[in-house]
From TrEMBL:
Metabolic or biological pathway, per its Swiss-Prot or TrEMBL entry: Carbohydrate metabolism; tricarboxylic acid cycle; isocitrate from oxaloacetate: step 2/2
This protein's GO CC annotations: cytosol; mitochondrion
Keywords on record: 4Fe-4S, Iron, Iron-sulfur, Lyase, Metal-binding, Mitochondrion, Transit peptide, Tricarboxylic acid cycle
Lineage: Eukaryota, Metazoa, Chordata, Craniata, Vertebrata
CDD domains: AcnA_Mitochon_Swivel, AcnA_Mitochondrial
Native species: Phocoena sinus (Vaquita)
Segments forming domain Aconitase A/isopropylmalate dehydratase small subunit swivel: 527-655
Cofactor dependency: [4Fe-4S] cluster
Full protein name: Aconitate hydratase, mitochondrial
Protein location: Mitochondrion
GO biological process: tricarboxylic acid cycle
Amino acid sequence: MGLNRPLTLSEKIVYGHLDDPAHQEIERGKTYLRLRPDRVAMQDATAQMAMLQFISSGLPKVAVPSTIHCDHLIEAQLGGEKDLRRAKDINQEVYNFLASAGAKYGVGFWRPGSGIIHQIILENYAYPGVLLIGTDSHTPNGGGLGGICIGVGGADAVDVMAGIPWELKCPKVIGVKLTGSLSGWTSPKDVILKVAGILTVKGGTGAIVEYHGPGVDSISCTGMATICNMGAEIGATTSVFPYNHRMKKYLSKTGRADIANLADEFKDHLVPDPGCHYDQLIEINLSELKPHINGPFTPDLAHPVAEVGSVAEKEGWPLDIRVGLIGSCTNSSYEDMGRSAAVAKQALAHGLKCKSQFTITPGSEQIRATIERDGYAQILRDVGGIVLANACGPCIGQWDRKDIKKGEKNTIVTSYNRNFTGRNDANPETHAFVTSPEIVTALAIAGTLKFNPDTDFLTGKDGKKFKLEAPDADELPRAEFDPGQDTYQHPPKDSSGQRVDVSPTSQRLQLLEPFDKWDGKDLEDLQILIKVKGKCTTDHISAAGPWLKFRGHLDNISNNLLIGAINIENGKANSVRNAVTQEFGPVPDTARYYKAHGIRWVVIGDENYGEGSSREHAALEPRHLGGRAIITKSFARIHETNLKKQGLLPLTFADPADYNKIHPVDKLTIQGLKDFAPGKPLKCIIKHPNGTQETILLNHTFNETQIEWFRAGSALNRMKELQQK
């Protein structure tokens, strides 16, 4: 390899995990790296499909340490204990499948109630210098402990668990230099809210964001994790912080002083080299950074808290806050809960409670038990809060919301990471804003977006005006963490007698059938299923919420294919023209009609298609229902890879303006697949109904390995071919 130059921290960690460093070509943004990650983590909604794919690979055991985390299938309804009991009952079949598959194939199993995957990883598995992949887009949370932790689809996880080198396009590196120090109401969350405003939802695509500079030391370890976690919202491959004393403190407090001592010994390798080169450099002075709140409907619409009220008035957004929600994988640390409790305590001292409804989601069983012991949970209840289960809950749409009707315009504020249309409660009229937990708490007490806790006054029960003081709280508990209940199942040494059953009549689980191989021909006369207008996230392609229960059953979950995407032809969601009958109907029904009649189809998309979650169902569903290609102006990284893994063609317009040449009634022929090669564009013939044609060029990012996936029908099919050889 021999780069002979100063390296960024992310380069040290990534290149340190190369499969064959001596022969690896390295060019940022160009070459594909073959890597050997240290471990795999999967949340329960994506682990079902990952484990089904691993089972069909025929391998006896996973090749690297791997874990499953039950956090996505618990719906917020009545409160922690009741909701957990209900989830265990409703999801028993899925939990049994994951527990038994984990036991059989050597995967650790964190039971429901243990907490959110990313908090568990930070508490137990992340460490400075690790390369970890996780089947969830917020896996970069582990960058708060100096690791390179990357969100992927389930098929990528299967590769790593099978002992196959994992491929990643060599990332560019964006440097964020932090100077000054955090103080007052400004929190770590404000750093990433500001960066999201600068870079937008696609500005980090294909890059690792690397924070450095003297300002880093003013941020706690869990605060750094918050910043890395929400880096997913700018499309970044991952984000990372350099090793420092705040990480050492956290490692020691979570029972890993031996790892901290090792990190101290090698600390020069766990920071960027002086003089290293960043592809882009952003500077933020933390002393000048103001509290931010981003939204609605997109996480990169940034506003200072001081200005959001007047912007909302001008835009016609509801000022009245119906619900404030704190927690999530982004902001549920001990420090987050402490700062929120410090705000709540002041309100209680003046006889006030929250004007808005208020919910609290602890990040893990350890956090829940510790904030109960230290009184934070009770303070948050006293101010009007309800403590939910240690799970994702409303952040991913697992929320049985009763206070509004669907279609009712309203505002909520959260300390979550995403605020796409309908994400939290399936109501497209909910205006969701993301901010820090302490700002959520202050706004929930005030009940309005037109409140700036830094300058505005509240009126106490006694009629006297008072101002909230900026919260102060310990970053870690003074006593040791209370681990709470033991929720971990270690895989047995001997799993030979372990059975994994999937009932053929199950509505929740379905064994996978291999996808068909490429027939060796160009793709002729593809029907356009839908031409998507505007933002199309993985939530639009494969909705979560009530659909999460079908994540292990490909045919059932395919009934949500693209139901949230807006059809350019009529401006409606889930309404497309059937080219044969000329009738408008739901997208999944139309796709099933085409499949039943042997009609292959294509989707036309806009910018950053597939941003958001890592869910590979957004790629499996179109493949299952007869899709062959997705043609867009640009793709989000994880979704583009997921499409390739399932044997689909993610293609981009060589000229983005060509998006306007294609109409939903046209047919497309994609030529050049017999000579399919890296870097070589494909031709697309647009056939208009009036008999005229025009030709455009389509680009792709396939390398040789990925072309083999396409020819075999999927990456899994290709893996089996290689095993047979």
